Amino acid sequence: MKKLKQDLVVLPSHFFGEEALVKIEETGTDEQKRMAKLLFEGTMEKQQMAEFSIVMEQLYFYSSRGKVRN
Fold it and tell me: Of the four listed, 1, 7, 17, 69, which is most buried by Cβ atoms within 10 Å?
């Protein structure tokens, strides 16, 4: 296993949820807004997890040119 030259430390932030919801409100579809609300309120049910992945996927695969990558 190759050791990295620099260590990277990542810590959770309580600001993430607030920032994510603001971004979703600005750019998300109605369906994405609904799913984000379920996630951050902690009311998402197990059977909604697959739907969440499908609905939110396009937010995670975005190119620098502003077009969704397939």
Answer: 17
* 18/32: higher pLDDT: 32
The rounded distance, in Å, linking the Cα atoms of 65 and 12 is: 29
- Six token digits for residue 38: 């379920």
Q: How confident is the model at residue 34 (pLDDT cuts 50, 70, 90)?
A: very high
How confident is the model over 13-23, as a mean pLDDT?
Answer: 83
What sign does the CA torsion over 11, 14, 20, 22 have? negative
pLDDT at 29 over 70: yes
11, β-bridge pairs: none
Distance, CA of 26 to CA of 10 (rounded, Å): 26
Question: Which residue do the tokens 């260590």 mark?
Answer: 7
